[in-house]
Amino acid sequence: MNKDILLCGVGGQGTVLASKILAATAMNAGNAVHSAETIGMAQRGGSVTSHVRIGQSYSPLIPYRKADILMAFEPAEAVRNLVYLKKDGVVIVNKVPVKPVTESLHDTGYDGVEMIQYLKEKCHCIVIDSTEFGSAKFLNIAMLGVAVGTGKLGFTKEQVLEEIKNRVPQKYIDVNVEAFEKGIAIGEAK
After folding, report:
1. Mean pLDDT rounded to a whole number for the chain
2. Tell me: the pLDDT tens digits for 96-127?
3. Which residues constitute the domain of residue 18?
4. Cβ neighbours of residue 187 closer than 8 Å, sequence gap 6 or more
5. pTM exceeds 0.90
6. Which helix (H) or strand (E) element contains residue 5?
7. Is 111 inside a domain boundary?
């Protein structure tokens, strides 16, 4: 299998955990995997980008216009990273924005709506709402579910669930599994 997946969001949204679950799932299935994160000022609400390359590749970074899936935890981050998506790729995006510090200082009116509209015009886009999963804390796992549900990820529910159960703290497994299954249902419906 050859698959390039770019995950992007804002610090604290769980993009790194989601990328580690994807990479481990791929390795458990016998695939070669390269991954890399660009974290920067993530702890202060900055951008986080994770590249996961499954199969044969010569670099852990996905070239422009080569990502099969772009999983965006925030609308502006989806637009910022759209250059990575291949022509027939899919974007899975959370419609709930994380307002940057500059928004709170200057009230620019950023609500993510224009970003979502732009994405819908430019690519195959699956829009989800993180509030549907009980808490934004489960968005990363729900997004993995959406990707599985579309069939574009190339892994089964059971393969991904095994790694979720290995990496999520025991006391949070049930709520994460519930979010994952809701995500699968959304992906299957799209």
Report:
1. 93
2. 998 776 666 777 888 999 999 999 999 999 99
3. 3-102+124-189
4. 92, 126, 145, 146, 147, 148, 149, 150, 151
5. yes
6. strand 3-10
7. no
